[in-house]
Amino acid sequence: MIEDKDFCHYSGLFSVASYEQKEIMTDSVTQLDYSQIMAMESRKRAQLINSLGGFKSVCLISTIDGTGSTNVAIFNSIFHIGANPPLIAFIVRPDSVDRHTLSNILETGMYTINHLNENIYKQAHQTSARYAKEISEFDATGLTREFKNGWKAPFVKESRIQMGVEFKQRLDIALNGTIMVIGEIKHISFPSDCLCVDGFVDIEKAKSITCSGLDSYHTTYRIGRLSYAKPDSTPNFVNIAYED
Asked: What is the separation of C-alpha 186 from the centre of its chain, rounded to a whole number of angstroms?
């Protein structure tokens, strides 16, 4: 089994990460069976399994409770459900401790989803700390609440792509105790010059970032957009044309 030190060394949360990336050795492959995976120390297993799913959508979800107290927390389990109606979902870990984001959503029915960018990823990461309910992560991390468009839950002002979402359904997943929260997108805000004529929003142009595993953040580089796949043709590159 490859040890963590073979991959990288981090110098601290709020300092620049220094690491030495090893060249991939094509003749060296690690293989683990189920018994070996389950025998791993729990946090190491969590890092392993979380990193296998590929690059993920990482966002800040902001909520407010009935008394007006606000909460913002980072989630990397956000995914598209459908466009008609416009549904989006995320996963909440097992409800073994107080989950302020979930409880606020169930209480008020409203929340916001806000993309990360390079300017705020460290503050966003810090929101994963277990602050007491009376302490808002906005205040603890220096992120800015933004109330607009009559939406009760605050947006993250520093985020360039923002969604106002209305709670629609909770699905409890018995297999591991996690919870799927499904919401309907009611409001969208993004830079005007990122909208393409076909409706595609260029999130790379908006400087949205992605993540892998639990704590590795990445910028992106588009290889290309490809045409709709059909059995009798090969895909072509799609020209990216922005609305005027």
From this structure: 19
**Rounded distance, CA 49 to CA 115, Å?**
24
The DSSP annotation for 193-244 comes to GGBBTTS-B-TTTTTB-EEETTTEEE-------BPPP-TTS---BPP--B--
Strand partners, 64: 70
Q: Per-residue b/e over 119-130, b at no fewer than 16 CB within 10 Å?
A: ebbebbbbbeee
pLDDT in tens, 126-178: 999 999 999 999 999 999 999 999 999 999 999 999 999 999 999 999 999 99
**What's the CA dihedral at 204, 209, 212, 215 to 10 degrees?**
170
159 backbone φψ class: left, alpha, beta (φ>0; ψ -120 to 50): beta
7 pLDDT higher than 50: no
pLDDT, tens digit (0-9, with 9 covering 90-100), for 211-234? 999 999 999 999 999 999 999 999
Neighbours of 110 (CB within 10 A): 19
Burial class (CB in 10 A: 0-12, 13-18, 19+), 62: buried
Cα(138)–Cα(143) distance, integer angstroms = 5
Q: Is the pLDDT of residue 235 over 70?
A: yes
**Closest to 17 measured CA to CA, from 193, 175, 215:** 215
Q: What architecture does CATH give domain 56-218?
A: Roll (2.30)
For the chain, the domains span 56-218
